[in-house]
Amino acid sequence: PTPELAARYRADFPILNLKVNDKPLVYLDNAASSQMPQSVIDRLIRYQTTQHANIHRAVHYLSEIATREYETARRTLQHFINAREDREIIFTSGTTDAINLVMHGYGRKFIQSGDEIILTNLEHHSNIVPWQMLAEEKGATIRVVPINDAGELLVDEYEKLFNPRTRFVALTHVSNALGTINPIKNMIAFAHQQGVPVLIDGAQAAPHMKVDVQDLDCDFYAFSGHKLCGPTGIGILYGKAKLLESMQPFKGGGDMIVSVTFEKTTYNTIPYKFEAGTPPIAAAIGFGAAIEYLSKIGLDAIAAYEHELLNYATEQIITIPGVHIIGNTRTKVAVLSFIIDGVHPHDVGTLLNQEGIAVRTGHHCAQPIMQRFKIPATSRASFAFYNTKAEVDTLVEGIHSIQKVFS
Ligand code: PMP
To answer: Sheet harboring 198-201: ordered strands across?
Structure first.
C-alpha cells in the first residue's frame, strides 16, 4: 500500500478548509489549477516584505537579493526536470506562452511553405492554435495523429505521418481532458531518427510524475506553475541550449539585449534573450518554492498515491449504470472524464457544486477530443495528492443524487 499522502500533507493547504454551500469543499479541479500550500504563500510574503526589487539591473542590496532568488528558482526548476544547464530554463508566463515562444522563435525561422507539422488528437488548444497560425502564415500543413476509443494515440499512424517535408512535432505528454499518458520517449526517438525536433506540452505531466528531459531527449518541454501548487502567471520552457541559441527572440525589449542603437540591436545570451522586460519575479520565486515543496514529498510517491485514488474512483464510477468514463485507458494520470446519460455536463457541474464539489465541465480546451467521441462536453474530476478516498466517495454520492434528480 502507498503512504496516505493526503493524511500527511492536506493540512498544508489552508484553502481546503473552506466550506462551499455549507459543505466542506471537495476540490477536484486540479488539472485546471492546483492549490497552494502555506509554505509557498509564506515564501511570496517573505519576498514581498523583505526581498522585492527589480532584477538584473542595479547594484543595490535589494536588487542583488531579488536577482539571486530569481536565479535560484531557475536552478530549482533545472534540477526538477534534470536539465543539463540552467540557461536551458526560460521563465514564461505559462505553458501557452512557452509554446508561442517556440512557434515564433523556432517555427517562424525554420518552417517554410510546404513543410509539415505533426500534432495529435489529444492536444489542448494551446498546442494547436499557435501551429495553425504558423501554418497559415507560412503555407505549411498540419498532420494529426489519431486516437482509439480508449483515448490512446495510434503510434503506428504517427510513424506513417512522417515524410521528407516533416519539420516539427508538437505533442502532449498527458491529455488534460482524458488523462492519457502518451509514450513520448519512443515517439521522440522516432522523430529524431527522421531528424525532426519535438516539443512536449508537459502541463499535465509535470505535476504527476517525474520528468527527466535528458532521459526523454525532448527538444522542448513546457509547463505552468499554477498546476504545480505554485502561482499563476509563471511557467517554464525548457529547450536544448543549441536549439535555443539558433532561435530568434519572441519579444523585444529590455534585458534581452547586449546593446541597442537605432541601426542595430545585439541580443543577449540565453535564457535572457527570451525574457524581455521585467519578468514575474515574485511568481518565479513562488514557483521555485512550490517545486521544493513537491520535491520533498517526491514525485514518485505522488504518482503512486494518485494512481491508487484513480483506481478507487474508477472502480466505483464504472459500475454506476448510465455513467460512462471517456478515455478509460490503463496508462493515465488521475483524471476522470465522464458523462451521465440524459444529463448535460453543465448541470452535473452545477449540482455537484451545490454539494461543495468542484469539477470542471465543458470541452476542456480540447474540442477535437470531443469531436472524436461525438460529445459536446464531459465532466472532469481531476485529483491531487491532497485528495482523499472520502472525497471520492462524496463525488460518487453526488453522481447518484444527480441521477435521482433526473430520473
Ligand atoms: N496544455 C495542457 C495540456 C493544459 O492542460 C493546459 C492548461 N489547461 C495548457 C496547455 C495551458 O496552460 P496555461 O493556461 O497555464 O498556459
So the answer is: 89-92, 235-239, 220-224, 198-201, 166-172, 116-120, 141-145
- Site to substitute for ligand 1 among 96, 99, 102, 119, most atoms within 8 A of C-beta: 96
CA of 224 to the centre of ligand 1 (A): 7
Interface predicted TM-score (ipTM) of this complex, two decimals: 0.99
Catalytic residue among 323, 365, 377, 402: 365
Contact between residue 208 and residue 239 where contact means Cβ atoms under 8 Å apart:
no
| Rounded mean pLDDT, 185-189 | 98
Ligand 1 neighbourhood includes 126 CB (under 6 angstroms): yes
Quick count: other Cβ atoms within 10 Å of Cβ 73?
Answer: 28
Residue with cell 510546404: 114
CB-ligand 1 contact for 280 (6 Å cutoff): no
pLDDT tens digit sequence for 257-285? 999 999 999 999 999 999 999 999 999 99
> Average pLDDT in the 248-257 region?
93
On average, the pLDDT of the chain sits at: 97
Q: Does the beta carbon of 172 lie inside 6 Å of ligand 1?
A: yes
Share of the chain above pLDDT 90, in %: 97
95 lines ligand 1 (CB under 6 A): yes
d(CA 25, CA 44): 24
